Amino acid sequence: MSIKKIIFVFLLGLFVQDVNAQNLLDSLTLSQQKVYKDLNYAIDHADSAYALDLSKKKLKIVPEDIKKLPNLQWLKLSKNNLKDIPSWIGDLVNLQYLDLSNNDIVELPTSIGKLENVYYLGLNQNLIENLPHEIGQMKTLQVLEMWDNELLAIPEEMKDLRNLQVLELRGILFSNDEQTQIETLLPDTKVMFSPSCNCPD
After folding, report:
1. Do the domain assignments include residue 22?
2. Sign (positive/negative) of CA torsion 102, 103, 109, 111?
3. Which among 131, 136, 171, 197 could bridge 148 via Cys, Cβ 3.0 to 4.6 Å?
């Protein structure tokens, strides 16, 4: 590839990134968008489908047709029967709000780290034991709710979440030492714990 073509591809990439950034709605505007509750209907109105609520649909898998919504920025998949989150979730790069709570999820794919625009991630009431190290790449993340999971520890990479304001860990048994380690890792984050289990190491 010639130098001119390389420069063109580079500049094109910057342009696409800039366009994507401009397409992101501010939180107030996003909260005012119509929330679609039927995926097929949302696909028929894809240009205006910024918010999709597929909670309480008895879903066992995440519908791949969600990828047909290029403007999607708010996605709720709570209160289903999901056990796995597909790796393509990382392709939904415009997402700002993602609620996966009240499912049977055991782990998250490493591609979750690609969701750099997500400011809220809801994982309450799942079966998650470990978080992928790539979660530290979610630079915009402000609220991470994980109460009532099976979490054994949090990855050190979470120290890179400079915008994280709230980490909800109630319902998960950590010893005093483990709680102190987490608070040390995230000194500027409000971390909420249940009372220490005083568990032996």
Report:
1. no
2. negative
3. 171
